[in-house]
Design goal:
It comes from Ranitomeya imitator. It is a multi-pass membrane protein. By secondary structure, this protein is mainly α. About 75% of the residues lie in helices and about 0% in strands. The chain has helices at about 10-45, 50, 55-80, 100, 110-140, 145-175, 185-205, 210-220.
Length: about 230
């Protein structure tokens, strides 16, 4: 589109793009919750960690996340492709996604029901699960007597907390924002953040505690570091 200047898409192209976006977003949402649950088990019930998060259970969690992403995106595409458009054929977004289509579809009770159920099951529920997990983790950390113990426990969660805050902060801001021309540019900016910037930052955030990564980053910006 940028090279040709042609900003039109066929229905097949648009819905294919929306399918993969919905699939990946749903899977990522569930994986973030699973990672939060992992931190809860590691800190709150560490003696049961290897039994709760065994290899078999981890494969089950991962499979559930990916299959849920497939089912959710399939339902979303099915509902969207059958909903009539009343207002426009122009998607007010730089990619095809569910919320952008809500603005141009005719009022449709079935489509609205699917929209609310998707937000509840694959949006709000994983978010609340992650939030509850970290509330329990914070309670346990505050009960640790030694400052070194508290610091060590918190350091195991810091990377995931940063990613969780970036992802949910931008997602929630976009999806609870009421449709308005005044907020369109702000909404597009947030969309760029959670679709491109946040995924690019994930490897940096998760590896920042690695000493070799820190040393490489310091060298990159011109600082002299010891090789010890």
């Amino acid at each position: 589109m940028f090279l040709s200047g042609d900003y039109t898409l066929s229905f097949a192209q648009c819905f294919t793009q929306m399918y993969f976006f919905s699939h990946m977003a749903t899977t990522e949402d569930l994986l973030l919750f699973i990672m939060a649950y992992d931190r809860y088990v590691a800190i709150c019930i560490p003696l049961h960690y290897h039994s709760v998060l065994s290899k078999k259970n981890c494969l089950l969690f991962m499979s559930t996340a990916w299959i849920s992403g497939f089912v959710n995106s399939f339902v979303v595409i099915l509902a969207s492709s059958n909903a009539p458009m009343c207002y426009s054929n122009m998607v007010s977004q730089f990619f095809c996604e569910f919320k952008a289509f809500e603005k141009i579809f005719c009022p449709n009770a079935h489509f609205q029901l699917i929209s609310y159920l998707e937000a509840l099951i694959f949006g709000l529920s994983p978010f609340m699960g992650s939030l509850i997990s970290y509330i329990m983790v914070i309670i346990v950390i505050f009960h640790i007597r030694s400052s070194d113990g508290r610091k060590k426990a918190f350091s195991t969660c810091s990377s995931h907390l940063m990613v969780l805050s970036m992802c949910y902060g931008t997602w929630i801001s976009v999806y609870i924002m009421p449709p308005s021309e005044d907020t369109r540019d702000f909404e597009l900016t947030l969309s760029v953040l959670y679709t491109t910037i946040t995924p690019m930052l994930n490897p940096v955030v998760y590896s920042i505690r690695n000493k070799d990564v820190k040393r490489a980053l310091l060298k990159l910006v011109g600082f002299k570091v010891s090789e010890e």
